[in-house]
Design a protein that fits this description.
- The chain contains 14 helices and 34 strands.
- It folds into four domains: about 300 residues, ATPase, nucleotide binding domain (Nucleotidyltransferase, domain 5), CATH 3.30.420; about 80 residues, ATPase, substrate binding domain, subdomain 4 (Actin, Chain A, domain 4), CATH 3.90.640; about 130 residues, Sandwich (Substrate Binding Domain Of DNAk, Chain A, domain 1), CATH 2.60.34.10; about 90 residues, no CATH class.
- The radius of gyration is 28 Å and the shape is globular.
- By secondary structure, it is α+β, with helices and mostly antiparallel strands.
- About 30% of the residues lie in helices and about 35% in strands.
- The strands form eight sheets. Strands 1, 2, 3, 4, 11 and 12 form a six-stranded mixed beta sheet that branches. Strands 18-13-14-15-19-22 form a six-stranded mixed beta sheet, with helices on both faces. It has a five-stranded antiparallel beta sheet with strand order 28-27-26-23-29, with no helix packed on it.
- The site of adenosine monophosphate has 18 residues, from α6 and α7.
Length: about 625
C-alpha cells in the first residue's frame, strides 16, 4: 500500500498535515494530540536541529538561534521592504546572501536559506507521519498564499524537494479551503474565503460548480496577520513596562521573546475570555511584568488591521464584479478568525454568517489532502485559478508591457511579437517584471532573458517573439525567440537571485530593450511643422482623445510630450521635465514632430493641467 498523498498547509506560524485514505480524512497529530505544528526551527547544543514544538520550547532559551515566520522571507530579496521590516522585529539575524542578494538566516554559526529552514520543518512532518502511521509519504499537495509570486512558489517547491517530497500540486490556500467544503452537487455557489493567518492575509472569491473551482478574483497582504496583532500588543506592554521601570525591553532579546509569547497567549485567551492577566516574573533583572488586559483593549489595537483586510476584500469583490449579496457562502480560515470582533466585522462586511463546520486551523490542509487523494486517482478537481499579479517585460521608454494581466485565469500562455527600437541593435535584454505600475522600473523584477546575436537590422525590423506561460502550479516559464535567426532562450523563474539579474537592479537596460511590434509601423502622424501647425496637430489629438507620445525636435531642442485621452500628462526635454518642459516644447517654433499612438505609455502623470489650457497659453 503506498502512503497517502499528504495535504500540507505550510503556514507562517503553524503547519497542518492531513491525508485522505479511502474517503477517510485523517489529521496528523503530535504526541500531545495537537494538530498544529509550529513552523519553528532551533539550532541547539552540538548544532543539533530541533523543529516544531521542541524548537519553540528550546527557543525561549536561545532566541537568536531560533527561526520562525520564515515563510515571510521565502523567495525574497534581502533589499525587499518585507525583509527589512522583518530584520527590525525578528529576534534572529537576517543577512544578505553575498552572491545574488537573497536572504540568509543566521542561527549560531550556521547560515540557512529560508527554504532550507522550511525543508527542515517538512522533513519533521514527514518523519512524524511515518512514526504515527507506519508508511513513508513521498508525495504531497502543498498550499501557498494565493498571491505568492513565482520565486516564492519555487522556493516552496525546492523546500519540499529537499525534504524528499514530490509536489503533485501547489494549491492556493483559499482554493484549498474551498475544496474542504462538502460537495454541493451541481448547484453553482460563489464562496468568499477570508483567510487571516499568523503572518499573511488572503481573500479569494471562488465559484464552485460540481468539481470545478474557479477563482474569480484574489488579493492579499504578505504582512498582515495575527503576528501583527501580537506585535502591537507587545509594543503597548513594553511601553507600560518602560514607564514603570525605565527599561527598554527591545534591548533584551530573551525578554522580548517571552513578552511575544505571552502576548500571543493573551490574544488567544481573549477570544473566549473577557480579560486575562499577564505575569512575567523577572522579565529583566529583578523587574517583573504584571498586568491585566481586557478584550476591548486588544480590539482597539486590532481594529485598524482588520479594517485593512476589509479594504482589500472590497477591492477583490470589485475585481470579481460582485457585491456581498451575490455570495452564497463566507468561509473564515486562520487562527485569528476565532476573535469575536474579527468575525463580527467580517460577517458585517459580507452581510452573512460564516459557514459553520469549517475548522479555521485545518480546513486548508484538509482541502489539500482531498485534492491529493483525487490526483492520486487521476481525477483532481478542475481548478481554474487566476494570476494574482500582472506579469510583463520592460519595453523602450521605461514602460511595462503587460503580457499576463492580474486576475487572468491560469494555466495560461500568452505571446506577443516585439521588435528592436534602435538601428543596428544586436542584443535584447528583457527584464521580467511583476506589478501593475506602467513605469517599468517601479515593478518587481523576477529575472531576465537575454537574446544575443540579433541581426542588427534597422530599427523596427527584427522580430522577437516573447511567450509567457503560467503552469497549473502558478510557475512562470518565459521563452524568447529571435524569429530572424531561430535562436531561442528560456527561463523558468527560479534563478532570479542570480548575480546577473541583480547587477542592473533599479535601472533598466534601455539601449537593449524592445518595442512592441505594433509600434513598428512608426509614427501615426508625422511631419515638419511651422509653429502654428503644431497647435493644430495638438488640437486634433486632443479632440480625438488620443493616447501616445509626440516627439518634437528643432534646431535648438528636442523632447517628448505624453498624452492620455487627449490630455498632456507629462513632458520632457533634454533640460527639463514637467510643466516647464511642456511650455518649452509648445514654444518650439519650427521643426519636426512624430506622434506614436500607443496604449502603453509608462510615464508618470506629472502635469495636472488640462490640454486646453496649454493650447490657450500657447
Ligand atoms: P494560522 O496561520 O492559521 O496557523 O494562524 C496562526 C495565528 O492564529 C497566530 O497568530 C495565532 O496567534 C492565531 N490564533 C490561534 N488561535 C487563536 C485564537 N483562539 N484567537 C486569536 N488568535 C488565534
Amino acid at each position: 500500500m503506498p502512503a497517502p498523498v499528504l495535504g500540507i498547509d505550510l503556514g507562517t506560524t503553524n503547519c497542518v498535515v492531513a491525508s485522505m485514505d479511502r474517503g477517510r480524512m485523517t489529521l496528523l497529530t503530535d504526541d500531545m494530540g495537537q494538530s498544529l505544528f509550529p513552523s519553528v526551527v532551533t539550532i541547539g547544543e552540538n548544532d543539533r536541529i530541533w523543529t516544531c514544538r521542541e524548537a519553540v520550547a528550546l527557543g525561549a532559551a536561545v532566541p537568536g538561534r531560533t527561526a520562525y515566520a520564515v515563510k515571510r522571507l521565502l523567495g525574497r530579496w534581502y533589499d525587499d521592504e518585507v525583509v527589512q521590516r522583518a530584520r527590525n522585529i525578528y529576534a534572529y539575524e537576517i543577512a544578505k546572501e553575498p552572491e545574488g542578494g537573497g536572504v540568509l538566516i543566521k542561527l549560531g554559526r550556521h547560515e540557512y536559506k529560508p527554504e532550507q529552514i522550511a525543508a527542515q520543518i517538512l522533513k519533521e512532518l514527514r518523519r512524524q507521519f511515518e512514526r504515527r502511521f507506519g508508511t513513508n509519504p513521498t508525495e504531497a499537495v502543498v498550499t501557498v498564499p494565493a498571491y505568492f509570486n513565482h520565486t516564492q512558489r519555487e522556493g516552496t517547491q525546492r523546500a519540499a524537494a529537499e525534504a524528499g517530497l514530490e509536489v503533485l500540486r501547489l494549491l492556493n490556500e483559499p482554493t484549498a479551503a474551498a475544496l474542504s467544503l462538502p460537495e454541493s452537487g451541481t448547484d453553482e455557489q460563489i464562496v468568499a474565503v477570508y483567510d487571516f493567518g499568523g503572518g499573511t492575509f488572503d481573500i479569494s472569491i471562488i465559484r464552485i460548480q460540481g468539481r470545478v473551482y474557479e477563482v474569480l478574483a484574489t488579493d492579499g497582504d504578505t504582512f498582515l496577520g495575527g503576528d501583527d496583532i501580537d506585535g502591537l500588543l507587545c509594543d503597548e506592554l513594553s511601553r507600560e513596562f518602560y514607564q514603570a521601570t525605565q527599561v527598554r525591553l527591545r534591548n533584551f532579546p530573551l525578554s522580548w521573546y517571552r513578552l511575544r509569547d505571552a502576548a500571543e497567549k493573551a490574544k488567544m485567551e481573549l477570544s473566549h475570555a473577557d480579560h486575562c492577566s499577564i505575569y512575567l516574573p523577572r522579565l529583566v533583572g529583578e523587574e517583573s511584568l504584571v498586568t491585566e488586559i481586557n478584550r476591548q483593549r486588544l480590539e482597539t489595537l486590532a481594529r485598524p488591521l482588520i479594517e485593512r483586510s476589509l479594504s482589500i476584500c472590497a477591492q477583490t469583490l470589485d475585481a470579481a464584479g460582485l457585491t456581498p449579496v451575490k455570495l452564497d457562502q463566507l468561509v473564515l480560515v486562520g487562527g485569528p478568525t476565532r476573535m469575536p470582533m474579527l468575525r463580527h466585522m467580517v460577517q458585517d462586511f459580507f452581510q452573512r454568517s460564516a459557514s459553520p463546520g469549517v475548522n479555521p486551523d485545518t480546513a486548508v490542509a484538509e482541502g489539500a489532502a482531498r485534492e491529493g487523494a483525487m490526483l492520486r486517482q487521476g481525477s483532481g478537481a478542475l481548478l481554474l485559478d487566476v494570476t494574482p499579479i500582472t506579469l510583463g517585460i520592460n519595453i523602450a521608454g521605461n514602460r511595462l508591457y503587460p503580457l499576463i494581466p492580474r486576475n487572468t485565469k491560469i494555466p495560461v500562455r500568452k505571446e506577443h511579437m516585439f521588435t528592436t527600437h534602435r538601428d543596428a541593435q544586436t542584443q535584447a535584454r528583457m527584464v521580467i517584471l511583476q506589478g501593475d505600475n506602467p513605469v517599468a522600473s517601479e515593478n518587481t523584477r523576477l529575472g531576465e532573458v537575454i537574446l544575443r546575436n540579433l541581426r542588427g537590422y534597422e530599427r523596427f525590423h527584427s522580430r522577437i517573439q516573447v511567450a509567457f506561460e503560467i503552469d497549473a502550479n502558478g510557475i512562470l516559464h518565459v521563452k524568447a525567440m529571435d524569429k530572424d535567426t531561430g535562436e531561442e532562450r528560456n527561463c523558468v523563474i527560479q534563478d532570479s537571485f542570480s548575480p546577473e539579474g541583480r547587477e542592473v537592479a533599479g535601472e533598466l537596460p534601455e539601449s537593449e530593450s524592445l518595442a512592441p511590434a505594433e509600434e513598428r509601423v512608426g509614427p501615426t502622424i508625422a511631419g515638419p511643422f511651422r509653429a502654428t501647425e503644431l497647435v493644430d496637430v495638438l488640437f486634433f489629438l486632443h479632440a480625438n482623445r488620443k493616447t501616445g507620445r509626440i516627439e518634437l525636435s528643432s534646431d535648438g531642442m528636442s523632447g517628448t510630450l505624453w498624452m492620455i485621452d487627449g490630455q498632456i500628462t507629462h513632458a520632457q526635454t533634454d533640460y527639463s521635465k514637467g510643466l516647464d518642459a511642456a511650455g518649452q516644447l509648445l514654444d518650439i517654433g519650427e521643426g519636426n514632430y512624430s506622434f506614436y499612438e500607443s496604449e502603453h505609455l509608462g510615464e508618470p502623470a506629472e502635469i495636472d493641467t488640462p490640454f486646453e489650457i496649454l493650447v490657450g497659453h500657447n
